[in-house]
What does this fold into?
Amino acid sequence: GEKARGWKKPATPRNILSYAREMRKKPTEAEEVLWRHLRNDQTTLRFRRQYPLGGRILDFFCPENRVAVELDGAIHDDVVQKNEDQLRDQYLFEEYEVVTLRLNNEAILHDVENAVERVRSFVRMHSASPSLVERGQGGEELSEGGQEAVENQKKGGGDVRLTVRVPENLRKSI
It folds into this structure.
C-alpha cells in the first residue's frame, strides 16, 4: 500500500466488513466503557470502533492520526499471543504507518479516566511530528524488555504495551 500521508485505504472484503459490524453490535464490557468516553470526548479526536484495516479489525482507530487502540483481555498475557500481537502491530506500522496502543481490559474497567488520558497522550505523542517514513529515516524496532519496558515503568504501570520504533541514528540519545 501507499505509505505517504495521503494514503487510501484498500477495499475491505465483505466477510471482514460483516464481522466488524457484528463486533460493533456485541462489544466487550471494556470496549463499551472506553467507547462511551472516546465517543463523548470533547477533544478533536475522532475514533472509529471495530475498524477493518489490512485484513484485521482494530478495536478503536483514529484515522487522522493513524493510531489504533487495542484492548487486551487475559488471553493476551499468553506468550504466544503476545508474539502474535507484536507481529500484528508491526504489520500495521509497516504497511499503513499505524501505531498501536494496547490497554489491559481491567485497567479500563477499574480506571477509565486514566485509560482515556493515556489514549489522548499517545495520540498527541504520535501526531506532533511527521512520520519516520516522511522524514526518510525508516525505523527499527527496539527489543522487547529494552527501552520499551523502561518507558512503561516510568508511566507507572504494566498494563500498557507499546511497540516503539526509533531510527538508528536516534537510539544513542535514548
Observations:
- The longest helix spans residues 79-96.
- Helices lie at 14-25, 29-39, 79-96, 105-110, 112-127, 147-154, 168-171.
- The radius of gyration is 16 Å.
- The beta strands are 48-53, 56-62, 67-72, 99-104, 140-141, 160-162, 165-166.
